[in-house]
């Protein structure tokens, strides 16, 4: 059974690049255009990993992660923050919210896939 990954980013091109890399590695992909949209996709279906941007309209990534972690079915879902944000305080805020990894854009797809494979149990 393949693993499902939710990508949350307000940039269609980033969702496309990440989606292509993940689908190429055999993952199923769900896309969210911002935190609010992504939260509506956490409707009980199995999600093995969330990859989220930090700076987005309507609901930013850190707020989204905090909200997602309140949902019983997603409390233990690992999260990778994928962002242009490299400031230490933002990273600390992300980790406090529940992010397990931090990948800074621009990223190499193989770098992201390495982080994904570490967090998605086989």
UniProtKB/TrEMBL annotation:
Gene Ontology biological process terms in this record: phosphorelay signal transduction system
Looking at the keywords, is Phosphoprotein present?
yes
The Response regulatory domain, residue ranges: 4-120
| PTM annotation (4-aspartylphosphate): residues | 53
What is a single Pfam family found in this protein's UniProt entry? Answer: Response_reg
Query: What are the record keywords, sorted?
Result: Phosphoprotein
Signal peptide positions are none
Output the PROSITE patterns linked to this UniProt entry: RESPONSE_REGULATORY
What InterPro entries does this protein map onto? Bact_response_regulator, CheY-like_superfamily, Sig_transdc_resp-reg_receiver
Could you tell me which PANTHER family the record lists for this protein? Answer: CHEMOTAXIS TWO-COMPONENT RESPONSE REGULATOR, STRESS RESPONSE REGULATOR PROTEIN 1
Q: What is the name attached to this protein's record?
A: Two-component system chemotaxis response regulator CheY
Species this protein is from: Lapillicoccus jejuensis
Q: What is the lineage of its organism?
A: Bacteria, Bacillati, Actinomycetota, Actinomycetes, Micrococcales
